[in-house]
Amino acid sequence: MSKPLFALLAGLCAATLLAEDIKLPAPQKTGGMPLMEALAKRATSRRTQGPEPSAQQLADLLWAANGITREDGKRTAPSAMDKREIEIAVLTAKGLFLWDPEANTLIENPACVDLEDQRRDASAFLILYYDKGVQKRESALADSGFVGQNIYLFCASRGWNSVFMGSIDRKKLATALGKEEDEILFAHRIGVK
Question: In whole angstroms, how far apart are CA 94 and each of 54, 126, 177?
Answer without folding.
Answer: 12, 14, 16
